[in-house]
Amino acid sequence: PVTDAMSIKVEATPTDLAGIVENKPVDLKITLINSVDGKHTEEIKSITIKVTETWKDNAIGEVTEKGLLTDTRGNYKINENLDGTYTITKKDGTSFDFTEIKDLQYTPTTNRNGDVSFDVIVNHKEIDGKATMDTLENGSRNAIGSKVITVKPVVSSEIKVGNVQDGIEDEKMASIELNVVKADPSEKFESVLIKVASGVASGVAVYYDNGTKLAMNLGGGSWLIPVSGDGKTLPEIFFKGKEHLAGNIGFEATINVKDG
After folding, report:
1. Are the beta carbons of 253 and 191 closer than 8 angstroms?
2. Do β-strands 26-33 and 100-107 pair in parallel, antiparallel, or remain unpaired?
3. Rounded Cα distance, 13 and 29, in Å
4. Is the whole model's pTM more than 0.85, yes or no?
């Protein structure tokens, strides 16, 4: 007898509606597709997974050293080897059969985006298989299945409106502050888009820098304000009504953010 080739299918499914994104786990499913050796294959007691992370951004602030491979149901023992690979065995000591291996989950390194590759290696052998030019010395073969995913960046900083100051008709501008209550150090704010509600848009102008600079008027009640400095803090926003204008000003603020 001679050991015939076996194939491995690796699938990755996001757990978030946004897809495969920063800080969200990915479900892994591995399928061992039997060769023609069939039931004459020796028991497969372990599989090896090599995870290679190639990040596109810079490691800034609180980031973990690398992603995490876990078992969501506690059926497997996951051992990390010195070479960075993982050896997966069943806790009950049984072998892996030729069905789906589920319940493995990978969580990317915190606040990082880029490509992650999974290489699954399984050593298998036909019972009493003899060594040939196509096998290892003991007559076994290594089957390899691979999958590459792209972890997309997401904005994770949290911003709230605070310190709302009422204006006075024809005398004092109203103002608000955009406070970063939870910062992602890997993100940099580049600009703020203010969209004034349509009912008052034609009578309101938007300013920044202590009310001394007029924001760029994009038309339709939209105003663009640059973010200066290191991009970690947001400018205070000022609203100036036309002469004799009084009442509430509704607006929506959209922050343009660069990750990494």
Report:
1. no
2. antiparallel
3. 8
4. no
